[in-house]
Design a protein that fits this description.
Layout (H helix, E strand, L loop, with lengths): L2 H20 L2 H7 L5 H32 L4 H23 L7 H22 L1
């Protein structure tokens, strides 16, 4: 598989996962039952923030690949930092949310790790 395909695929998966993270926010908050207004706001803020971070990483990787064809020190730096951030949030999710019974949260670390691996592979090939 070509490096560019790996980079584009990873960026699209991460972007889609971020959007899929944001979309059910209202239902996620409802699932927690009665919450104080401050707690509800914090939950919404954090839930949406992770989704936006994923969308940002995906769009950044896509854009740098499109603009630089994935070549050069700036592109390489973006790929390493993006993969690193995906791995950090994957480990965080693995240590916290992945122990829940909610399937999308349980598979989230796997998706993030696979995307990070694709970005690293696309960067190295």
């Amino acid at each position: 598989m070509s490096p560019t395909i790996l980079l584009y695929a990873a960026s699209l998966v991460v972007t889609a996962w971020g959007i899929a993270h944001i979309a059910p926010t209202k239902g996620v908050v409802k699932a927690f039952g009665e919450l104080r207004a401050d707690h509800r706001r914090i939950l919404v803020m954090e839930w949406v923030a992770e989704g936006m971070a994923l969308v940002f990483i995906g769009v950044l990787v896509f854009s740098i690949t499109l603009l630089s064809r994935g070549v050069g020190p700036v592109a390489s730096t973006v790929y390493w930092l993006s993969a690193g951030m995906l791995l950090i949030v994957a480990v965080w999710t693995l240590l916290t949310g992945a122990r829940t019974s909610i399937l999308p949260i349980r598979i989230c670390p796997v998706i993030k790790m696979l995307a990070a691996a694709s970005i690293v592979a696309g960067n190295l090939l």
